[in-house]
Design a protein that fits this description.
Strand order of the largest sheet: 3-11-9-10
Structural class: alpha+beta
Low-confidence stretches: none
Mean pLDDT: 88
Shape: globular
Strand content: 5-15%
Helix content: 25-40%
Length: 268
């Protein structure tokens, strides 16, 4: 604390450990990729190589989207009125439909089902959908079967009932209704590798709060791009879901999920 003219003034000092200073090549960041910055701050050269190797060996979520196997979108932005100049569109078919109270899920992780106390139902004062954010695609990912993914990647829940995906959270659907693929996605997105990958690929994650981007999710490699590997994931999902009475994974199930993840992406 310094004194100037009788007033107390705070001063800040930054002390840097020279061994922790890393050089980042301009060519690596000129394209806007956040990964070099994230690995420099929280990771190492090894982390960068791990991400490059896995992403090189497998198709990504974005590849599946481009192939028409998946649809990804943030949830619809719901409003309580038509807004200025009719910027919001009234959708009475949403009245009484289920959605999620995110406050009830703040401390939740590794979910296969939403707890009953986290589900609420839309009333007639909150079914105006913002037009500028897009409507058709955002409503399509609310239709079953689909996967609801937390923006913080704390959970990914497969559902066979309609659920209005909250704004900023992500919905994943399959145009062909491929339930096996969606179940595998939900299970995989609960793995520790996905949390690791998304943290290093999302600019905001760890800076202020754990917010992962839709772009980072599209960059995620998918380790079940053939029938044999997909069957292993479907089988594990069905068994874990049947054994889980509360909807969240116990430690043994998490360990088994991580073991399958590391085996299929070929990491020790």
């Amino acid at each position: 604390v310094a004194h100037a003219g009788g007033h107390r003034r705070k001063t800040w000092n930054i002390v840097v450990n020279s061994s922790e200073v890393q050089e980042i090549s301009y060519s690596n960041v000129v394209g806007g990729d956040p990964t070099p910055w994230k690995t420099a701050m929280w990771g190492s050269f090894v982390d960068a190589k791990v991400l490059q190797t896995v992403e090189r060996n497998f198709r990504t979520v974005g590849d599946l989207e481009h192939a028409g196997q998946l649809i990804l979108s943030e949830g619809p932005q719901l409003r309580d009125s038509a807004g200025e100049k009719g910027s919001n569109e009234y959708h009475p078919e949403l009245i009484g439909k289920a959605t999620i109270d995110l406050d009830a899920l703040k401390r939740c992780r590794h979910l296969l089902r939403f707890p009953e106390d986290s589900v609420r139902y839309l009333n007639e004062s909150e079914v105006f959908v913002n037009k500028r954010a897009g409507i058709q695609k955002k409503l399509s990912i609310c239709e079953p079967p689909h996967v609801v993914v937390s923006v913080s990647r704390n959970f990914a829940v497969y559902m066979e009932t309609f659920l209005a995906v909250p704004a900023r959270q992500i919905g994943i659907a399959s145009p062909s209704g491929n339930r096996g693929l969606l179940k595998a996605m939900a299970l995989y997105l609960n793995s520790d590798f996905v949390a690791y990958h998304q943290f290093l690929k999302s600019p905001q994650a760890g800076i202020e709060r754990f917010v992962n981007t839709l772009t980072a999710l599209r960059d995620l490699p998918v380790p079940f791009d053939d029938a044999a590997s997909l069957e292993r994931w479907e089988t594990l999902y069905s068994r874990i879901a049947a054994d889980s009475e509360t909807g969240d994974l116990d430690q043994s199930s998490i360990d088994e999920l991580n073991e399958l993840t590391f085996d299929t992406i070929k990491l020790s």
